[in-house]
Amino acid sequence: MKKLAKSLIFLWGVSGFTVTGCVVSAVPAPPVDSVAEAAGAAEKVSRTLWGDNVGAMDPFIDALLAKMTLEEKIGQLNLLTSGWDVTGPTMNEDYKDDIAAGKVGAVFNAFTASYTRSLQKIAVEQTRLGIPLLFGYDVIHGHRTIFPISLGEAASWDLAAIEAAARVAATEAAAEGVHWTFAPMVDIARDPRWGRISEGSGEDVYLSTQIATARVKGFQGEDLAALDTLLACAKHYAAYGQAQGGRDYHTTDMSERELWDTYLPPFQATVEAGVATLMTAFNDLNGVPTTGSAYLLDDILKTRWGFEGFVVTDYTSINEMVPHGFARDNRHATQLAINTGVDMDMQGAVFVDHLKALVLEGKVARDRIDAAARKILAMKYRLGLFDDPYRYMDEDRQQREIYKPENLQAARDMARKSMVLLKNADGLLPLRKNGLSLAVIGPLADSKADMIGSWAAAGDRHDKPVTLLEGIRAAVGDDTKVTYARGGGYEFDDTDRSGFADAMAIARTADVIILAMGEKWDMTGEAASRTSLDLPGTQPALMRALRELGKPMVLVLMNGRPLTINWAATEVDAILETWYAGTMGGFAIADVLFGDYNPSGKLPVTFPRSVGQIPLYYNMKNTGRPYDVNGVEQKYRSRYIDSPNTPLYPFGYGLSYTTFTYSEIRLDSAQMAAGGTLTASVTVTNSGARDGEEVVQLYVRDLVGSVTRPVRELKGFQKIMLKKGQSQTVTFALQPADLAFHRRDMSYGAEAGEFKLFIGGSSEAVKEADFTLLDTVVLRPAHSPQVRALPHYHSTRNPIASLTHE
After folding, report:
1. CB atoms near residue 7 (< 10 Å)
2. Does 367 participate in catalysis according to the annotation?
3. Tens-digit pLDDT profile for residues 168-189
4. How far apart are CA 806 and CA 289, in angstroms?
5. Could you tell me the pTM of the whole model?
6. Long-range contacts of 82-86 (CB under 8 A, 24+ apart)
7. Which residue among the candidates 314, 345, 394, 446 is catalytic per the annotation?
8. Helix (H) or strand (E) run with residue 554 in it
């Protein structure tokens, strides 16, 4: 089809767009040619969102900086860890001495009101100026009350519930003296071999962007000074989720277009939502470690986007520029990091060791140290720490807030919403509560440690979590018999089948077999990359053996990534994806299994048939030789010869105990003008026998572009509740900005031409309509990638002779 270039409209001032009836989505800006050109281009909104009293705060910080020595300013840029052992919180005595010497500005992994108070007392009472510490912690999906893993929360497609979960986590953590969380992780991830896919929101830009914004709002609330809020930290900036081979910490390399259209939008959205801090990533991006990238940290983040918070590194990532081969030694790495925009060093101690000398030698400007210290001091001011350094350290409040009944109920509700029904042959689920004999089998059926998954903050793994077995026993009637056998193991090298006999014995007398299988909790998260996505250990063999009994089988999955479960998808009667469901997970799973809650989750990430398909995601390109299973030509097409191209389960997929039917799509017009809005409507009917929720999803395809375009892109969604027999008209409004991308010349805009629009219950929605965009709309002009000259030397004879790339 030919593009219709009726007119070309330029709208330089546009920086965001709204999809009516859905949510706000950020539009990424392209690279800038120079810092001078971009200066002042970004509207700085954070200080407005934070409610800064500039007239009081700025003079206070000016006066404090004037009193501080260079060493004291550098100390504010230093973040060190605490520890925890069987007796409680601990800290290296040398670190305590550093706090007393004013060499530490923040501490992480310290919590409880009494312990943080003890460390704060050192900073306030033993240092010259008494500047309080900032306490950070990895509050990822709950603090004490643990919610489903982040990927599981994303499967709910429920932004209000996700924000509420972050709100509960913030309330509990703040009650234990924590000021700052290292969340949300907003990395787009399309390779399930990568363990940290569990910490994010999946593969899609639009969905991930909305969830990132919701989590920032949940953590930070309306007032940073409120005692139930935390500073949020968007991580890992940037493109960490595209690690080669799915191997954690590995290289990422991509085009500018891919970076801007896929990996940067969630970060920009958090900046626009007022996120207080950002964390650099471990990886190098296009040859430059992100911790030393002026392009990412200065040109894009601080200049183009106008970020006003502070940038913290990930754990020792400044030091790691040395083994990356980007810095000659830690001193050189320090120079690169501070000059490219890092404000705080996590655990590397290189700022404390080297910054003073670098300043005295003229290799780092004093103003740069002042600017970094100012940002950190400003966050402490916003938290009210200069008014009362101990205001978050109230043991009575801690006792009141931890594990409150309403927190536990919120965790249970979030867990139910996160579960995805993948298969339900012959309506096996929901099970009745009475008059059945149930065999509950598998290594995850009664494992408290596994229920809360990885990165579970201060969550208890021993007593608090409700297991699946406990949840089932609590749910069923007195006349239902529940038996249990572990059966097999889930360790990679587990070959022991001695437990099979017990499992087979209880299964023979059962009406239904419920299998609890998946991954051990520490097989996901950081440093947990896998080469196989199969169920580990003896689980597959146990499942096959039980299948021989011919009994109805329900597979309850507990895992932190998509798994390759082809055999189960064919042979098992029902499959429920529960991720790691959290503290109340067992109750929540039982709610779904027995029909007290109708599953409504949808996959935020594609489930492949094989690791050989990876990366596999719904919005791939069409290629010049697309494969059609019904096509005449079968050989010379973009296909595998030993597997279908299609996934096992696609993005956006999820079943319900009821059914939903969609009418044809109705457009208010077949054309969209540059300043216009196109409205698409569809009537959704609950045509089944139960009340239920449906996630109505809108996708668009740009048929011809100046660069090739994805086969589909999510542009909106609405989650609706329908009683059985009820119908509802769902309406979406699209504007040209919703169709924008980085064009061939790297300008950002929407191109005139024909589009297809799809609405349905997954990314494979079949209802479609056609429309035409009449005008090309350029939202931002083209810019070339910027490579800045900064001190980067390798010669020991002339350490500043080579001023090359970032």
Report:
1. 12
2. no
3. 999 999 999 999 999 999 999 9
4. 9
5. 0.93
6. 82/107, 82/108, 82/109, 82/110, 82/115, 82/119, 83/109, 84/109
7. 314
8. strand 553-558
